[in-house]
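queue> pop job 88
queue> type: inverse folding (structure -> sequence)
queue> payload:
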């Protein structure tokens, strides 16, 4: 792998992955970041990277639904590996407007697969980032394994399931060298504040209400984003061709307990001039089709590739809250939409 295409590298996980790859990993090649810069894509997530890695980092603003531009990128940069993060990623948005999810997550993935296949002679690895949501919902016990049948319940998870099937089909049918990872809920620096953890941190800091869906007893398995990045790179380097790996955080938590933990940690950091932030919790109407519980069995990646999460929920959450408190400028620019004005000025 010398010329790696990373899609969606200006989003939350993609940006953390590029930072990890260039700043910390043993990867010696270059990164070509293709991102359409939707509301979720923010080049400021990679502040400093273009300057510090000018020979090894290239950014192309492009839509993965545009096969001609993508084809030019594959040719110009002699792409020999793909790490595919780009997606519409928010379940609530997929319920209101599923259209973009079908385009980006299914058609966009198909375009990338077609181009990888066209250049199959030099393609070392096509790694596809997917989600545990493709497996549907668990009851009170049990875990998702790599052989759990697919049972997606939202337009988002259905579109991700479709893309997983396409990736696997391109391996079986055309012999494309692929790997897939299905991971649980990520959290950490640079996450867009529409997702539970950054939304609750920022609302708690600002003394706003903390909207918890339904009875708050839905369970998610939280994975610190840096642990996820390590796992993805491990799979890209040493995962077996054609295989799927589940990646989880070993950190199951009911939403209401998570929100209370955030309140307590923010109270600890900022004090309680207006009383405990737990008083801000408001139970609101449930999300339609809300999956009850996700939990990942990650024993396959642990046994085969020696990976396990380094952060506990307590250490990861402390780091995350500290990051949001220390990066008020990033937060303000994201919340005010200023980052989008800047993108328009820079990229049209
Ligand atoms: P995100 O929404 O923060 O970022 C998505 C990125 O993709 C943005 O930079 C956006 O501009 C870009 N993008 C969207 N449509 C595009 C298009 N048509 N062409 C090019 N770029 C486009 O998402 P994230 O949370 O970083 O998730 C990254 C990947 O990981 C997704 O595939 C998601 O399904 C998967 N995933 C996320 C989580 C999680 O908890 N966040 C968990 C499991 C899997
Ligand atoms: O499991 C992996 C998935 O995790 C990824 O594939 C998705 O891209 C990612 O968005 C995430 O999906 P969720 O729907 O689980 O994440 P979200 O942060 O939106 O919600 C987490 C839980 O918190 C979920 O049970 C819904 C609940 N919630 C969410 C929000 C935004 C609330 O109770 N209140 C809220 O305001």
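queue> result:
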């Amino acid at each position: 792998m010398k010329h790696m295409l990373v899609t969606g590298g200006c989003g939350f996980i993609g940006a953390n992955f590029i930072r990890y790859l260039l700043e910390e990993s043993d990867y010696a090649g270059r990164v070509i970041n293709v991102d359409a810069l939707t509301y979720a894509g923010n080049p400021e997530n990679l502040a400093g990277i273009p300057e510090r890695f000018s020979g090894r980092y290239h950014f192309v603003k492009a839509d993965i639904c545009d096969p001609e531009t993508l084809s030019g990128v594959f040719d110009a940069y002699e792409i020999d590996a793909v790490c595919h993060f780009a997606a519409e990623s928010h379940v609530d948005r997929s319920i209101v407007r599923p259209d973009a999810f079908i385009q980006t997550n299914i058609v966009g993935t198909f375009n990338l697969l077609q181009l990888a296949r066209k250049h199959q002679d030099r393609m070392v690895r096509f790694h596809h980032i997917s989600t545990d949501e493709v497996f549907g919902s668990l009851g009170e016990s049990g875990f998702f394994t790599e052989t759990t049948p697919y049972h997606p319940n939202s337009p988002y998870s259905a579109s991700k399931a479709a893309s997983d099937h396409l990736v696997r089909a391109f391996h079986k049918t055309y012999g494309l060298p692929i790997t897939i990872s299905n991971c649980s809920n990520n959290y950490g620096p640079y996450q867009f504040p529409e997702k539970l953890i950054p939304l609750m941190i920022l609302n708690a800091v600002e003394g706003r209400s903390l909207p918890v869906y339904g009875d708050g007893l839905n369970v998610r398995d939280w994975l610190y984003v840096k642990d996820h990045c390590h796992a993805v790179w491990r799979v890209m380097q040493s995962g077996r061709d054609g295989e799927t790996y589940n990646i989880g955080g070993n950190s199951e938590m009911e939403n209401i307990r998570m929100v209370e933990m955030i309140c307590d940690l923010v109270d600890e950091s900022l004090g309680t001039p207006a009383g405990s932030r737990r008083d801000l919790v408001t139970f609101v109407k449930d999300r339609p089709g809300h999956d009850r519980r996700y939990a990942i069995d990650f024993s396959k990646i642990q046994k085969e590739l020696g990976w396990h999460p380094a952060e506990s929920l307590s250490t990861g959450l402390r780091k995350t809250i500290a990051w949001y408190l220390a990066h008020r400028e990033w937060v303000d620019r994201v919340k005010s939409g200023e980052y989008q004005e800047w993108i328009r000025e820079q990229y049209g």
